[in-house]
Design a protein that fits this description.
Blueprint (H helix, E strand, L loop, with lengths): L10 H9 L4 E4 L2 E4 L11 H5 L7 H7 L2 H7 L3 E4 L36 H9 L43 H18 L5 H20 L7 H23 L3 H23 L7 H15 L4 H13 L27 E2 L4 E2 L4 H8 L1 H10 L1 H15 L11 H22 L5 H13 L2 H9 L15 H8 L2 E3 L5 H4 L5 H6 L8 H15 L5 E3 H31 L10
Parallel strand pairs: 6-7
Antiparallel strand pairs: 1-2, 2-3, 4-5
Helix pairs in contact: 7-21, 8-9, 9-10, 9-16, 10-15, 11-14
Length: 561
């Protein structure tokens, strides 16, 4: 049977398809239309929407098995010739022109021209995102790249603000400063530099495969299962002896350890089979832990694609309780939750004290995960058709099972009084706190700048993620999450192989000139708390700026009624 041939599509044609509402992305020089698959995608539709108009080759390769990639081929509609220049996706504020009969503009290569500068410059003024406008005659690293607030910031003082500025010039100035620092710290965003980084990243992936680092070490899981069983058994032994606090500690430690294997299963890092690993993950997350694996996948896939983007990454969207960037002061709309993250009176108060409340909030992080899990399952945010249609019902069964054995069987039936029940519930849910601290540690102190759609996938992951240095004997406690840089570059590598992969990634970083963020556990936490304190100070300065503007007698700068 002859291989199917695909028509060559121009940028202008692809722009027109996106303008018509089509979900188009590029993968290995082929054009894909993902619309029929959006509602069936086990990882949720948001992850795909962030790839619209982009070359998604590295993201798709990192997050999908070869079998899944093969199945995607049915959604090919064409191919491209030459290098693809990314658009800003519509979900991030990109603007696209519909095709018309008079569209005959040509670019320098004789192809139909997409008004890229118009598209990107219009998005610079968007409150949701921004992208760089490139001038081939000028080095990119010396250009200002909008950081998703209001476009290029003025370097003037607050006193030169416009009447409706309301202190935003101060925020724009911070944005410009932080973006400039990133542009100086990381490799240039010009196409040649980024293409070289991508080529070496793909070579590194081939070397990792050649060294069998994608193969799972099942012997390590035998040790894991033994540890889980001991903790679970001790929890019930102490419960039988009416030692409620030790029982709760062991159960909390059991949940803490289970998260790591659920994370592996969610990334298909155990058997590499989609349904097999999903069932393993659901048994661990839903039946034993009371958390939804489907919710986690939908959330986590977006996190892996738009890491540390305040408007888009749900893993750093914790308003009104926490903010890791001054950009949250603008009441941005979350594209994941589809709601405004209000910078209201509650947020202003909570952010003022966030360096002190940070660890307290982490102690109760699991309660928020219950809420998000139930929302996902009850509303039915996951696929209702396609290969994953039955996962929701297995998860609901798991939730009922969890509530039966934990809340009814243990908390209600096995503990005699309400005070002991309350203490048991509290302790068992506070003990897994290190997992939440570990996840926050990997990203909260890293860059939240938006360097636009032309930054390569590997550079963005290295810019927004840190690793935690720890002795090998402590790997069981961190559960692989201490290697977040490596995990973000290669999400499907089994976690027991991440330490072996670390040296290869460090060599890659040295080769391409990208800093590799590696901190000790204590120092990393100090960096996170320092970031939270810095954002608190910025909030206080903003409040003073707004008060000065509001109280000013100058009719040009004041806000008088």
């Amino acid at each position: 049977m002859a291989a199917r041939t695909y028509p060559v599509l121009s940028r202008r044609q692809i722009e027109g398809l996106i303008a018509d509402g089509r979900s188009i992305f590029i993968l290995d020089q082929f054009v894909f239309k993902a619309d029929p698959w959006l509602q069936y995608h086990p990882g949720g539709d948001k992850a795909i929407l962030h790839m619209v108009g982009r070359d998604a080759t590295d993201e798709v390769t990192a997050l999908h098995s070869p079998e899944a990639r093969q199945q995607m081929n049915k959604y090919r509609i064409g191919r491209i010739e030459g290098r693809w220049t990314n658009f800003l996706p519509p979900i991030q504020g990109g603007k696209f022109r519909p095709l018309s009969e008079n569209d005959d503009a040509k670019d320098d290569n004789g192809n139909e021209e997409c008004d890229q500068n118009s598209t990107e410059s219009s998005s610079l003024s968007s409150s949701r995102d921004a992208s760089p406008v490139f001038d081939k005659a000028e080095p990119v690293r010396k250009r200002y790249v909008g950081d998703g607030l209001r476009g290029p910031a003025s370097t003037s003082s607050v006193s030169s603000a416009e009447p409706d500025d309301d202190g935003m010039t101060y925020l724009d100035t911070i944005t410009k400063q932080k973006t400039t620092l990133d542009l100086e710290k990381y490799p240039s965003l010009d196409f040649a530099t980024q293409d070289s980084i991508v080529a070496k990243y793909r070579d590194l992936d081939q070397r990792i495969r050649a060294e069998d680092l994608y193969k799972c070490n099942y012997g390590a899981y035998a040790i894991e299962v033994t540890r889980y069983s001991i903790l679970f058994g001790l929890a019930f032994l102490f419960l039988h002896w009416s030692w409620y606090v030790p029982s709760a500690v062991c159960l909390g430690a059991f949940w803490h350890q289970l998260v790591f294997t659920a994370h592996d299963a969610g990334h298909m890092g155990i058997t590499h089979g989609f349904h097999t690993d999903t069932v393993i993950g659901i048994i661990i997350a839903d039946f034993l832990g009371g958390l939804s694996l489907g919710w986690w996948k939908r959330n986590h896939n977006v996190h892996h694609i738009v890491t540390n983007a305040p408007e888009h990454d749900p893993d750093i969207e914790h308003m009104p309780f926490l903010a890791v960037s001054h950009r949250f002061f603008q009441s941005m709309r979350s594209t994941y939750y589809d709601r405004i993250m209000e910078y209201d009176a509650v947020a202003k108060f909570m952010l003022r004290i966030q360096p002190y409340t940070y660890y307290i909030l982490l102690l109760f992080g699991r309660l928020n995960l219950y809420r998000l899990s139930w929302d996902y399952l009850i509303v039915g945010r996951g696929p209702r058709k396609g290969p994953a249609w039955w996962h929701r019902w297995l998860e609901i069964t798991g939730q009922i099972f969890f509530w039966t054995w934990y809340f009814y069987g243990i908390v209600y039936k096995s503990i005699p009084n309400n005070w002991d029940r309350f203490v048991f519930f509290l302790v068992s849910h506070m003990v897994p706190m290190p997992v939440h601290a570990q996840i926050c540690l990997s990203h909260f102190a890293m860059s939240t700048s938006d360097l636009g759609p032309h930054e390569s996938f590997p550079q963005k992951m290295l810019r927004t993620t840190m690793d935690v240095d720890c002795p090998q004997w402590l790997d069981f406690f961190h559960g692989g999450l201490q290697f977040q840089v490596i995990h973000h570059l290669f999400p499907r590598i089994p976690r027991h192989n991440l330490r072996r992969t670390q040296k290869l990634v460090q060599d890659f970083c040295n080769d391409v000139g990208i800093p590799y963020a590696l901190y000790g556990f204590v120092d990393g936490n100090r960096q996170v708390v320092g970031t939270l304190a810095e954002v608190s100070r910025q909030a206080a300065i903003l409040a003073k700026c707004q008060k000065v503007i509001s109280d000013s007698d100058d009719p040009i700068h004041g806000h008088h009624h």
